[in-house]
Amino acid sequence: MTTVENSRRQLAQLIRKIEEGEEFSYYTKRILSRTIGITGSGGVGKSTLITRLIQHYREKRKKVAVVATDPSSPFSGGALLGDRIRMQRFATDPNVFIKSVASRGKQGGIALSTGAIASALSESKYDPIIIETLGIGQDEIDVSKLVDTSIVMFSPRTGDQIQAMKAGIMEIGDIFVVNKADMPAADAMAAQLTKEISESGRRVEIIKTIATTGEGIDKLLEAIEKHQKLIDAVGKKKESAVYQIESILRDKIYCYIKESLQKKNYWDKAIKDIINGESIAEIIKQLV
Amino acid sequence: MRKLRIIVAKAGLDGHDRGAKVVSRALRDAGFEVIYTGLRQSPEQIVSTAIDEGADFIGISILSGAHMIVAEKIIRILKKRNAADIPVFMGGIIPDSDIPDLKKIGIKAVFGPGTPTSKTITYLKNYHENDNS
Predict the structure, then answer these.
(1) Residues A24 and A110 placed together within one structural domain of the fold
(2) A77 and A216: one domain?
Protein backbone atom coordinates (compact mmCIF):
# COMPACT_ATOMS: atom_id res chain seq x y z
CA MET A 1 0.00 0.00 0.00
CA THR A 2 1.34 3.39 -0.95
CA THR A 3 1.13 6.48 1.20
CA VAL A 4 -1.16 8.11 -1.35
CA GLU A 5 -3.74 5.39 -0.81
CA ASN A 6 -3.23 5.55 2.90
CA SER A 7 -3.81 9.30 3.06
CA ARG A 8 -6.88 8.98 0.86
CA ARG A 9 -8.46 6.52 3.26
CA GLN A 10 -7.48 8.76 6.17
CA LEU A 11 -9.14 11.71 4.46
CA ALA A 12 -12.29 9.64 3.87
CA GLN A 13 -12.34 8.55 7.50
CA LEU A 14 -11.82 12.12 8.67
CA ILE A 15 -14.75 13.22 6.49
CA ARG A 16 -16.86 10.46 8.00
CA LYS A 17 -16.02 11.77 11.49
CA ILE A 18 -17.02 15.29 10.47
CA GLU A 19 -20.25 13.91 9.03
CA GLU A 20 -21.05 12.00 12.23
CA GLY A 21 -20.40 15.01 14.45
CA GLU A 22 -17.28 13.50 16.02
CA GLU A 23 -14.91 16.16 14.68
CA PHE A 24 -15.80 19.84 14.82
CA SER A 25 -12.55 21.67 14.12
CA TYR A 26 -13.22 21.91 10.38
CA TYR A 27 -16.26 24.10 10.88
CA THR A 28 -13.96 27.01 11.62
CA LYS A 29 -11.17 26.20 9.17
CA ARG A 30 -11.16 28.40 6.10
CA ILE A 31 -11.84 26.85 2.73
CA LEU A 32 -8.86 28.07 0.72
CA SER A 33 -9.81 26.22 -2.47
CA ARG A 34 -12.20 27.67 -4.98
CA THR A 35 -15.73 26.47 -4.41
CA ILE A 36 -18.51 26.17 -6.96
CA GLY A 37 -22.11 25.50 -5.94
CA ILE A 38 -24.59 23.82 -8.26
CA THR A 39 -28.25 24.06 -7.37
CA GLY A 40 -31.59 23.57 -9.09
CA SER A 41 -34.67 21.36 -9.06
CA GLY A 42 -34.44 17.58 -9.10
CA GLY A 43 -33.81 16.23 -12.60
CA VAL A 44 -32.56 19.53 -14.01
CA GLY A 45 -29.16 18.01 -14.82
CA LYS A 46 -26.91 18.98 -11.91
CA SER A 47 -24.99 15.69 -11.70
CA THR A 48 -24.57 15.46 -15.46
CA LEU A 49 -23.28 19.03 -15.64
CA ILE A 50 -20.85 18.26 -12.82
CA THR A 51 -19.34 15.35 -14.78
CA ARG A 52 -18.60 17.88 -17.54
CA LEU A 53 -16.91 20.19 -15.04
CA ILE A 54 -14.86 17.34 -13.55
CA GLN A 55 -13.77 16.36 -17.06
CA HIS A 56 -12.64 19.92 -17.77
CA TYR A 57 -10.72 20.35 -14.53
CA ARG A 58 -9.01 16.97 -14.99
CA GLU A 59 -7.90 18.05 -18.46
CA LYS A 60 -6.38 21.07 -16.72
CA ARG A 61 -4.68 18.61 -14.33
CA LYS A 62 -6.53 19.91 -11.29
CA LYS A 63 -7.41 17.86 -8.24
CA VAL A 64 -11.15 18.15 -8.03
CA ALA A 65 -13.66 17.17 -5.36
CA VAL A 66 -17.43 16.92 -5.37
CA VAL A 67 -19.69 16.99 -2.31
CA ALA A 68 -23.15 15.93 -3.47
CA THR A 69 -26.24 16.10 -1.29
CA ASP A 70 -29.38 13.99 -1.45
CA PRO A 71 -32.32 14.08 0.95
CA SER A 72 -32.67 11.99 4.09
CA SER A 73 -36.05 10.49 4.82
CA PRO A 74 -37.83 12.42 7.57
CA PHE A 75 -39.52 9.11 8.47
CA SER A 76 -36.75 6.51 8.60
CA GLY A 77 -33.68 8.76 8.67
CA GLY A 78 -32.33 6.69 5.79
CA ALA A 79 -31.31 7.98 2.39
CA LEU A 80 -30.65 6.79 -1.12
CA LEU A 81 -27.62 8.64 -2.42
CA GLY A 82 -27.53 8.41 -6.19
CA ASP A 83 -25.74 11.51 -7.42
CA ARG A 84 -22.49 9.74 -8.06
CA ILE A 85 -24.02 7.21 -10.49
CA ARG A 86 -23.35 9.68 -13.29
CA MET A 87 -19.84 10.42 -12.04
CA GLN A 88 -18.66 6.84 -11.57
CA ARG A 89 -16.20 6.92 -14.45
CA PHE A 90 -14.11 9.21 -12.21
CA ALA A 91 -14.37 6.87 -9.19
CA THR A 92 -10.91 5.40 -9.75
CA ASP A 93 -9.19 8.67 -10.66
CA PRO A 94 -6.74 9.39 -7.82
CA ASN A 95 -7.25 13.12 -8.40
CA VAL A 96 -11.03 13.07 -8.09
CA PHE A 97 -12.77 12.70 -4.73
CA ILE A 98 -16.54 12.31 -4.69
CA LYS A 99 -18.44 12.35 -1.40
CA SER A 100 -22.19 11.77 -1.12
CA VAL A 101 -23.89 13.29 1.89
CA ALA A 102 -27.43 12.96 3.16
CA SER A 103 -29.20 16.11 4.33
CA ARG A 104 -29.97 14.49 7.73
CA GLY A 105 -32.86 16.76 8.55
CA LYS A 106 -31.10 20.00 7.69
CA GLN A 107 -33.13 22.42 5.56
CA GLY A 108 -31.51 24.65 2.99
CA GLY A 109 -30.34 22.19 0.34
CA ILE A 110 -27.02 21.10 1.82
CA ALA A 111 -26.06 19.07 4.88
CA LEU A 112 -24.87 20.62 8.14
CA SER A 113 -21.44 19.12 7.55
CA THR A 114 -21.05 20.14 3.88
CA GLY A 115 -18.90 23.20 4.57
CA ALA A 116 -16.71 21.39 7.09
CA ILE A 117 -16.23 18.53 4.62
CA ALA A 118 -15.20 21.09 2.00
CA SER A 119 -12.64 22.49 4.49
CA ALA A 120 -11.13 19.02 4.93
CA LEU A 121 -10.98 18.57 1.13
CA SER A 122 -9.43 22.00 0.80
CA GLU A 123 -6.76 21.05 3.35
CA SER A 124 -5.98 18.02 1.16
CA LYS A 125 -5.47 20.40 -1.78
CA TYR A 126 -8.57 19.56 -3.77
CA ASP A 127 -9.24 22.66 -5.84
CA PRO A 128 -11.84 23.38 -7.07
CA ILE A 129 -14.48 21.84 -4.82
CA ILE A 130 -17.90 21.46 -6.39
CA ILE A 131 -20.88 21.41 -4.06
CA GLU A 132 -24.12 19.96 -5.37
CA THR A 133 -27.33 20.63 -3.49
CA LEU A 134 -30.21 18.22 -3.31
CA GLY A 135 -32.96 18.80 -5.86
CA ILE A 136 -34.35 22.01 -4.46
CA GLY A 137 -37.70 23.73 -4.49
CA GLN A 138 -37.72 27.49 -4.16
CA ASP A 139 -35.90 28.64 -1.07
CA GLU A 140 -33.05 26.21 -0.49
CA ILE A 141 -30.33 28.77 -0.91
CA ASP A 142 -27.78 27.94 1.79
CA VAL A 143 -25.18 26.86 -0.76
CA SER A 144 -24.87 30.46 -1.95
CA LYS A 145 -23.74 31.48 1.52
CA LEU A 146 -21.02 28.86 1.47
CA VAL A 147 -19.44 28.91 -2.00
CA ASP A 148 -17.53 31.45 -4.07
CA THR A 149 -19.50 30.94 -7.26
CA SER A 150 -23.04 29.66 -7.22
CA ILE A 151 -24.69 28.32 -10.32
CA VAL A 152 -28.46 27.99 -10.42
CA MET A 153 -29.78 25.58 -13.02
CA PHE A 154 -33.12 25.76 -14.78
CA SER A 155 -34.72 23.61 -17.40
CA PRO A 156 -37.17 24.80 -20.05
CA ARG A 157 -40.89 24.72 -19.30
CA THR A 158 -40.54 25.11 -15.56
CA GLY A 159 -42.78 27.99 -14.77
CA ASP A 160 -44.19 31.26 -15.93
CA GLN A 161 -43.11 34.81 -15.34
CA ILE A 162 -44.45 34.91 -11.80
CA GLN A 163 -42.27 31.92 -10.89
CA ALA A 164 -39.27 33.94 -12.03
CA MET A 165 -40.35 36.88 -9.86
CA LYS A 166 -40.59 34.89 -6.64
CA ALA A 167 -38.12 35.26 -3.81
CA GLY A 168 -35.59 32.55 -3.00
CA ILE A 169 -33.47 30.90 -5.67
CA MET A 170 -34.02 33.75 -8.12
CA GLU A 171 -32.21 36.03 -5.68
CA ILE A 172 -29.07 33.91 -5.53
CA GLY A 173 -26.77 32.65 -8.23
CA ASP A 174 -23.81 34.28 -9.90
CA ILE A 175 -24.52 32.32 -13.04
CA PHE A 176 -27.85 30.99 -14.32
CA VAL A 177 -27.77 27.91 -16.53
CA VAL A 178 -30.67 26.94 -18.74
CA ASN A 179 -29.93 23.26 -19.30
CA LYS A 180 -31.58 20.95 -21.84
CA ALA A 181 -31.23 23.84 -24.30
CA ASP A 182 -32.20 21.56 -27.17
CA MET A 183 -35.78 21.71 -25.92
CA PRO A 184 -37.92 24.20 -27.84
CA ALA A 185 -38.85 26.33 -24.82
CA ALA A 186 -35.22 26.98 -23.84
CA ASP A 187 -34.96 30.36 -25.58
CA ALA A 188 -38.17 31.56 -23.96
CA MET A 189 -36.89 30.45 -20.56
CA ALA A 190 -33.58 32.24 -21.06
CA ALA A 191 -35.40 35.39 -22.23
CA GLN A 192 -37.63 35.35 -19.17
CA LEU A 193 -34.65 34.98 -16.84
CA THR A 194 -32.81 37.78 -18.65
CA LYS A 195 -35.77 40.07 -18.20
CA GLU A 196 -36.18 39.22 -14.54
CA ILE A 197 -32.49 39.70 -13.83
CA SER A 198 -32.32 43.05 -15.63
CA GLU A 199 -35.27 44.27 -13.60
CA SER A 200 -33.69 43.10 -10.35
CA GLY A 201 -30.56 45.10 -11.10
CA ARG A 202 -28.28 42.12 -10.34
CA ARG A 203 -25.51 41.09 -12.66
CA VAL A 204 -25.92 37.44 -13.56
CA GLU A 205 -24.72 35.66 -16.66
CA ILE A 206 -27.29 33.41 -18.30
CA ILE A 207 -25.90 30.47 -20.22
CA LYS A 208 -27.63 27.78 -22.24
CA THR A 209 -26.20 24.26 -22.02
CA ILE A 210 -26.90 20.70 -23.05
CA ALA A 211 -25.07 18.83 -20.31
CA THR A 212 -25.54 15.41 -21.94
CA THR A 213 -23.65 16.46 -25.10
CA GLY A 214 -21.39 19.08 -23.57
CA GLU A 215 -22.78 21.95 -25.61
CA GLY A 216 -22.41 25.34 -23.96
CA ILE A 217 -20.04 24.01 -21.28
CA ASP A 218 -17.15 26.09 -22.66
CA LYS A 219 -19.23 29.24 -22.20
CA LEU A 220 -20.15 28.17 -18.68
CA LEU A 221 -16.50 27.56 -17.82
CA GLU A 222 -15.62 31.02 -19.14
CA ALA A 223 -18.30 32.53 -16.93
CA ILE A 224 -17.04 30.57 -13.90
CA GLU A 225 -13.48 31.71 -14.60
CA LYS A 226 -14.60 35.31 -14.94
CA HIS A 227 -16.49 35.17 -11.66
CA GLN A 228 -13.61 33.48 -9.84
CA LYS A 229 -11.28 36.26 -11.00
CA LEU A 230 -13.70 38.70 -9.44
CA ILE A 231 -13.56 36.72 -6.19
CA ASP A 232 -9.76 36.70 -6.35
CA ALA A 233 -9.84 40.48 -6.66
CA VAL A 234 -12.27 41.21 -3.84
CA GLY A 235 -11.51 38.21 -1.59
CA LYS A 236 -13.69 35.36 -0.44
CA LYS A 237 -17.02 36.01 1.19
CA LYS A 238 -16.85 36.67 4.91
CA GLU A 239 -20.37 35.37 5.40
CA SER A 240 -19.30 31.81 4.61
CA ALA A 241 -17.55 31.44 7.97
CA VAL A 242 -20.43 33.06 9.82
CA TYR A 243 -22.91 30.80 8.04
CA GLN A 244 -20.96 27.67 9.01
CA ILE A 245 -20.63 28.62 12.66
CA GLU A 246 -24.24 29.74 12.90
CA SER A 247 -25.49 26.50 11.34
CA ILE A 248 -23.57 24.25 13.69
CA LEU A 249 -24.49 26.31 16.74
CA ARG A 250 -28.16 26.38 15.80
CA ASP A 251 -28.23 22.64 15.25
CA LYS A 252 -26.30 21.66 18.37
CA ILE A 253 -28.07 24.10 20.67
CA TYR A 254 -31.49 23.04 19.40
CA CYS A 255 -30.63 19.36 19.92
CA TYR A 256 -29.21 20.10 23.38
CA ILE A 257 -32.26 22.07 24.49
CA LYS A 258 -34.67 19.52 23.06
CA GLU A 259 -32.85 16.64 24.72
CA SER A 260 -32.68 18.34 28.09
CA LEU A 261 -36.36 19.25 27.91
CA GLN A 262 -37.18 15.69 26.90
CA LYS A 263 -35.22 14.31 29.86
CA LYS A 264 -37.52 16.19 32.22
CA ASN A 265 -40.54 15.26 30.09
CA TYR A 266 -41.14 18.98 29.48
CA TRP A 267 -41.03 18.62 25.69
CA ASP A 268 -43.81 16.04 25.32
CA LYS A 269 -45.84 17.74 28.05
CA ALA A 270 -45.60 21.09 26.27
CA ILE A 271 -46.86 19.58 23.01
CA LYS A 272 -49.70 17.81 24.84
CA ASP A 273 -50.65 20.98 26.73
CA ILE A 274 -50.76 23.00 23.52
CA ILE A 275 -52.95 20.37 21.85
CA ASN A 276 -55.22 20.52 24.92
CA GLY A 277 -55.72 24.23 24.42
CA GLU A 278 -52.95 25.90 26.42
CA SER A 279 -51.67 29.05 24.78
CA ILE A 280 -48.50 28.54 22.72
CA ALA A 281 -47.20 31.91 23.84
CA GLU A 282 -47.68 30.91 27.50
CA ILE A 283 -45.92 27.54 27.08
CA ILE A 284 -43.00 29.16 25.27
CA LYS A 285 -42.69 31.69 28.10
CA GLN A 286 -42.62 28.84 30.64
CA LEU A 287 -40.04 26.80 28.72
CA VAL A 288 -37.72 29.69 27.98
CA MET B 1 -24.73 6.95 17.23
CA ARG B 2 -23.26 6.68 13.74
CA LYS B 3 -25.49 6.22 10.74
CA LEU B 4 -24.78 3.06 8.80
CA ARG B 5 -23.52 3.76 5.29
CA ILE B 6 -23.58 1.06 2.68
CA ILE B 7 -22.49 0.79 -0.95
CA VAL B 8 -24.88 -1.15 -3.17
CA ALA B 9 -23.20 -1.99 -6.46
CA LYS B 10 -23.88 -3.98 -9.60
CA ALA B 11 -20.66 -5.58 -10.73
CA GLY B 12 -19.58 -6.33 -14.27
CA LEU B 13 -21.69 -6.95 -17.35
CA ASP B 14 -25.04 -7.46 -15.69
CA GLY B 15 -28.04 -5.25 -16.28
CA HIS B 16 -30.48 -6.84 -13.86
CA ASP B 17 -30.86 -4.24 -11.14
CA ARG B 18 -34.33 -4.94 -9.77
CA GLY B 19 -32.94 -6.88 -6.81
CA ALA B 20 -30.32 -4.25 -5.99
CA LYS B 21 -33.02 -1.55 -6.08
CA VAL B 22 -35.38 -3.54 -3.85
CA VAL B 23 -32.61 -4.06 -1.29
CA SER B 24 -31.50 -0.41 -1.54
CA ARG B 25 -35.02 0.83 -0.87
CA ALA B 26 -35.51 -1.57 2.04
CA LEU B 27 -32.22 -0.44 3.59
CA ARG B 28 -33.15 3.21 3.09
CA ASP B 29 -36.44 2.56 4.88
CA ALA B 30 -34.53 0.86 7.69
CA GLY B 31 -32.50 4.05 8.25
CA PHE B 32 -29.35 3.22 6.27
CA GLU B 33 -27.62 5.71 4.02
CA VAL B 34 -27.37 3.75 0.78
CA ILE B 35 -24.91 4.86 -1.86
CA TYR B 36 -26.08 3.31 -5.09
CA THR B 37 -23.39 3.11 -7.77
CA GLY B 38 -25.52 2.08 -10.72
CA LEU B 39 -24.75 -0.63 -13.25
CA ARG B 40 -21.61 -2.20 -14.70
CA GLN B 41 -19.11 -1.31 -12.01
CA SER B 42 -15.58 -2.69 -11.99
CA PRO B 43 -14.15 -4.10 -8.75
CA GLU B 44 -11.78 -1.10 -8.68
CA GLN B 45 -14.67 1.35 -8.94
CA ILE B 46 -16.57 -0.43 -6.17
CA VAL B 47 -13.63 -0.44 -3.76
CA SER B 48 -12.71 3.20 -4.51
CA THR B 49 -16.30 4.25 -3.93
CA ALA B 50 -16.46 2.38 -0.62
CA ILE B 51 -13.23 3.97 0.60
CA ASP B 52 -14.10 7.54 -0.46
CA GLU B 53 -17.62 7.32 0.91
CA GLY B 54 -16.42 5.98 4.26
CA ALA B 55 -18.75 2.99 3.88
CA ASP B 56 -19.47 0.47 6.63
CA PHE B 57 -20.42 -2.26 4.15
CA ILE B 58 -20.21 -3.20 0.49
CA GLY B 59 -23.19 -5.04 -0.98
CA ILE B 60 -22.72 -6.63 -4.41
CA SER B 61 -25.64 -7.75 -6.53
CA ILE B 62 -24.66 -10.15 -9.25
CA LEU B 63 -26.72 -12.35 -11.53
CA SER B 64 -24.25 -12.96 -14.33
CA GLY B 65 -22.48 -16.02 -12.94
CA ALA B 66 -19.20 -14.14 -12.47
CA HIS B 67 -19.57 -13.94 -8.69
CA MET B 68 -16.42 -15.94 -7.86
CA ILE B 69 -14.16 -13.80 -10.05
CA VAL B 70 -15.73 -10.54 -8.90
CA ALA B 71 -15.59 -11.52 -5.22
CA GLU B 72 -11.97 -12.53 -5.44
CA LYS B 73 -10.98 -9.29 -7.16
CA ILE B 74 -12.86 -7.08 -4.73
CA ILE B 75 -11.35 -8.79 -1.69
CA ARG B 76 -7.89 -8.60 -3.23
CA ILE B 77 -8.19 -4.87 -4.00
CA LEU B 78 -9.60 -4.16 -0.55
CA LYS B 79 -6.55 -5.85 0.99
CA LYS B 80 -4.18 -4.02 -1.33
CA ARG B 81 -5.72 -0.69 -0.36
CA ASN B 82 -5.64 -1.47 3.35
CA ALA B 83 -9.44 -1.52 3.56
CA ALA B 84 -10.08 -5.21 4.24
CA ASP B 85 -12.00 -4.18 7.36
CA ILE B 86 -14.95 -3.15 5.14
CA PRO B 87 -17.20 -6.23 5.09
CA VAL B 88 -18.55 -7.43 1.74
CA PHE B 89 -21.80 -9.32 1.28
CA MET B 90 -23.48 -10.53 -1.89
CA GLY B 91 -26.88 -11.14 -3.34
CA GLY B 92 -28.30 -12.32 -6.64
CA ILE B 93 -28.18 -15.65 -8.45
CA ILE B 94 -25.46 -17.58 -6.67
CA PRO B 95 -25.58 -21.41 -6.44
CA ASP B 96 -25.59 -22.73 -2.87
CA SER B 97 -22.58 -24.88 -3.69
CA ASP B 98 -20.49 -21.74 -4.31
CA ILE B 99 -21.30 -20.10 -0.98
CA PRO B 100 -18.64 -21.94 1.10
CA ASP B 101 -15.99 -20.94 -1.45
CA LEU B 102 -17.15 -17.32 -1.43
CA LYS B 103 -16.90 -17.30 2.36
CA LYS B 104 -13.42 -18.79 2.12
CA ILE B 105 -12.42 -15.89 -0.12
CA GLY B 106 -13.71 -13.45 2.50
CA ILE B 107 -17.33 -12.69 1.58
CA LYS B 108 -19.18 -12.32 4.88
CA ALA B 109 -22.69 -13.35 3.80
CA VAL B 110 -24.74 -14.27 0.74
CA PHE B 111 -28.42 -13.37 0.49
CA GLY B 112 -30.05 -15.23 -2.38
CA PRO B 113 -33.48 -14.85 -4.01
CA GLY B 114 -36.36 -15.07 -1.57
CA THR B 115 -34.37 -13.73 1.39
CA PRO B 116 -36.72 -11.44 3.33
CA THR B 117 -35.19 -7.95 3.35
CA SER B 118 -35.70 -7.94 7.12
CA LYS B 119 -33.11 -10.72 7.42
CA THR B 120 -30.52 -8.68 5.52
CA ILE B 121 -31.31 -5.59 7.60
CA THR B 122 -30.98 -7.46 10.90
CA TYR B 123 -27.73 -9.05 9.79
CA LEU B 124 -26.21 -5.68 8.83
CA LYS B 125 -27.45 -3.87 11.93
CA ASN B 126 -25.99 -6.56 14.20
CA TYR B 127 -22.75 -6.93 12.28
CA HIS B 128 -20.66 -4.22 13.88
CA GLU B 129 -22.21 -4.74 17.31
CA ASN B 130 -21.21 -8.41 17.31
CA ASP B 131 -17.86 -7.50 15.78
CA ASN B 132 -17.78 -10.33 13.26
CA SER B 133 -14.72 -8.87 11.61
Answers:
(1) yes
(2) yes
Residue B130: its pLDDT value, please? 67
Q: What is the mean pLDDT of residues B117-130?
A: 89
Q: State the residue range of the domain holding A74.
A: 3-237
Cα separation values, A80 from A205, B28, B30, B32, B51, Å: 33, 6, 11, 8, 18
Residue B3: what are its φ and ψ, rounded to 5°? -70, 155
Q: Kindly indicate the confidence band of residue B133, based on its pLDDT and cuts at 50, 70 and 90.
A: very low
Q: For chain B, which residues make up each domain, given as ranges?
A: 5-130
Number of domains in chain A: 2
Q: What is the residue type of A190? A: A
Mean pLDDT by 10 residues, chain A (288 residues): 74 96 91 93 92 97 96 92 93 96 90 94 96 81 90 81 67 92 91 87 92 96 95 81 86 88 87 90 86
CATH of the domain at A199: 3.40.50.300
pLDDT of res. A160: 59
Same domain, A218 and A80: yes
Q: Are residues A123 and A212 in the same domain?
A: yes
Contacts of residue B131, defined as CB under 8 A and 6 or more positions apart, other chains included, come to none
**A150 plus A201 within the same structural domain:** yes
Same domain, residue pair A170 and A272: no
B54:A13 CB<8 A: yes
CATH of B5-130, one of 3.40.50.280, 2.60.40.1220, 3.40.50.970, 1.10.10.60: 3.40.50.280
Q: What is the pLDDT of residues B38-57, one digit of tens each?
A: 999 999 999 999 999 999 99
Q: Is the confidence at residue B70, as pLDDT, over 90?
A: yes
Query: Which of B1, B36, B80 should one mutate to test binding to chain A, selecting the residue with the greatest count of A CBs within 10 A?
Result: B36
Please indicate whether, in this complex, the C-beta atoms of A88 and B37 are within 8 angstroms of each other.
yes
ipTM of the complex: 0.92
Give chain A positions within 8 Å (CB) of B34.
78-81
**Taking a C-beta distance cutoff of 8 angstroms, is the pair A9, A100 a contact?**
no
Asked whether residue A228 falls in the same domain as residue A251, the answer is no
Q: Which one of A6, A78, A98 has the shortest CB-CB distance to B33?
A: A78
Report DSSP letters for B47-96, one per residue.
HHHHHHTT-SEEEEEE-SS-HHHHHHHHHHHHHHTT-TTS-EEEEES--G
User: Nearest residue of A to residue B21 by CA position?
Assistant: A80
